[in-house]
Design brief:
Helix content is 58%, strand content 9%. It has 26 helices and 10 strands. Strands 1, 2, 3, 4, 5, 6, 7, 8, 9 and 10 form a 10-stranded antiparallel beta sheet that branches. α8 runs antiparallel to α25.
Amino acid sequence: MLSTQEWVLIAIILAALVTIVFDWLRADLVAIIVLAVLPLTGVITVQEAFSGFSRSVVITIIGLFIITQALEDAGVVQWIAGRMREVGAGSEVRLIALFMATGAAMSLVMNNIAAGAVLLPAAVQVGRESNVAPSKLLIPLSFGTLVGGMATYFTTANIILSSILRDQDQPALGMVDFLPTGGVIVAATLAFMLLIGRRLLPNRESVGQTASPYLLSRSLMEMYQIQEQLWEVRVLPTCRLVGMRLAESRIGEELGLTVVAIWRGHQAILNPGPDEVIQAEDYLVLLGWEDRVARLADWGAMIGRPQDRRNEGSTYFVDLAEVIIPPRSNVIGKTLAELNFRARYRLTGVALWREGLSFRSDVGTIPLEPGDALLMVGTPEHIKELAGDRDFLMLQGTHTVRPPLPQKAGWALAITGVVLLISIVELVSTSEAMMMGVAAMALTGCINLDDAYRGISWRVIFLIAGLLPLSLAMINTGLAERAGQSIVSALTPYGPLALVAGLFLLTMVVTQVIGGQVAALIVGPIAVTAALQSGVNAQAVAVAVAIACSAAFLTPIAHPVNILMMGPGSYTPRDFWRVGSGMALVTLLALLLGMRLFWGI
């Protein structure tokens, strides 16, 4: 018979999960509400409710964010991406292996999302140079960062499971606990992707016409040659072009110019037809030579925008840029119009790609979502300014921004190596090693502390700190023990490997819906309790559950790094299921092999 406290806790857990699954409230806000409600119910004390903020798990994750930021600011990860662009051109198989393996390697010491975000532009650029569609490279890159996170302690779910073990008076986990089993999984999934998975990847270039910003910009570059320049012309009310159809304007016949696009308010008209009527205050994107564009001034048009000034020659020609909205951007949920985007950045969004659909009308009024791909038009100078904004991820390599502290790359690498070594040999606790690394990064000038604080994803911190007491409450009330008994009775008759496999599958399914961080906090206490009850090594079961939290292969919403790849890869949710189901099966088989070889189960 369940106690009153257990029923209350079940109600809180279900309410939190339903709210997160249906996206009624932000997950971090749900965590804060849970944090506030739990002490009122008497399930845990106020001190226990707020203990999440002082846990080593939270300190470790904060340190990971800062060290990742320092590696980016020092240009280490950009250097790696640059080297990949130099050596990566070649066959599709070689590129898949290169990006999947590099994504896995970088995820050993840095945040998965950061690793994916840094390698994404390199993958797109190298793919173009090798005539390989991004859709053939970006799912392998995403999955590479996920399996790499299985082989390291420095993954959020792995850190959480270690904390849950300590809550149940069990030895915590370290780097060496994940590396052997995770390494087997990395090797097995890489082989699967090269032999089978790559054949299941879509080739979006052959589908539809100009279906994505990538294809739009590529077709324009190939059609018109990059040596010629794009120009922006504003049609003033007194211009002789007002009211004319393009066929009547003689822009092509008389000046030899091509009208690539027209944007009108928030509406973009790409490749306009000859019957399109030019209106006052339209902006025309023209392709052609500067001297011919300049003649439009005599027709009453304005070359460039009112804020632009001509310095040292032509500074008002425009270029195309592909921009991705990263998962933790501050612009999510807002429209370009609400952001006052054109006035702020002096760029215009021409097209938006989202989950297989291309939007070319009213782009400025569409609320932005993570993974959206935008085709931007504007001057190279303004595109470069946008590339420096962390709320946007620029795909075009020609507009990448030089890291602010490239001279500190050596120091940043050395400090990261020392932190990793200290964590492996366990000279001090991992959380202490991370804070030592943060202090060393700041003292050597590898990172500015103000930038470091901005680099921390406080949403993740509050999500984990807010829900950690939920895991503690499951242990204190006996709910974890009761749930563990049910799992043990169902699976242990088939042996310890069956218990591991069952917990892996349960956790993986939950991860596809609510994400690995929340899955670790909910399933973790139950899994560890089940291991203790059945006499199976609790550390081994914790490793298996943590790995399952990274097996976010089946849906794009299962992990932010998947969302990041959606736009530039022109993917649909079905693509992740098609390739990810095989990845999940191979991961499970490799995990069971690792459990047998390294844990004796």
